[in-house]
Structure formats: C-alpha cells, structure tokens
Amino acid sequence: SLNMPRHIPTLHHLCCELIGSCVINLDNVLDVLHFAQSHNIAALQDRAERFVRDSASAVLKVHSQSDVALVLGRETADEITRAQAEIDDKVRKNKLVGTVLDEVHPAITAQGQP
C-alpha cells in the first residue's frame, strides 16, 4: 500500500551478494574458497570450486597439493589431480603427432613388407 518493497534483503544477503562478486584469481582462489566455506556463501563457494576445477593445471602450479587438499578435501583434490594428469598426458600425446621421433622405422611397401 505504501509502495514499499515486499521483501527487504537482510544485511547477510547483501554482504553475500557483494562478496560473491569478488574477482577470483590464481593467487586468491584458495583463500576465497576457504572464506566462502567458513561463512556459508554457497554461490561464491561454487564459483571458487569451478575456478579450481577449470584452472587445475595453473592452480596446482601456484599452490601446493597439500594446500589444495586442505581447502577442498583430500578426495576432491586427488580427483582433480588425477583428472589433470590425464589431460596433461593426452596433450603430451597430441603434441607428438607430426613430430619426428628419434627411432627410425623402415618404410612399409604396398605389400606390407619393409
């Protein structure tokens, strides 16, 4: 009746929205994730976890495996490390395509004999 908003957000909600829009980078991602977990800011926690998963290679170069495990939990950190190792292996194999190898193989003729 008085043109007042039906729902007035709480201070906690407003703070969560402000903090949730923070910039996440390689240097601060574990701190942001820990903060989000500690203060129950689900949206920020989801963003930070997604950042870690999507940038696993770089995150693991900047932060130790033990620090990542401390924040994410050992099981999740191990899962991310295994997945990244698989990706690194696939990339390494793809880079070999078209690369001259040291070992020389005899050419195969049309009859299948060298």
TrEMBL record:
InterPro entries: SKP1/BTB/POZ_sf
Name of this chain's protein: Uncharacterized protein
Species whose genome carries this gene: Prymnesium polylepis
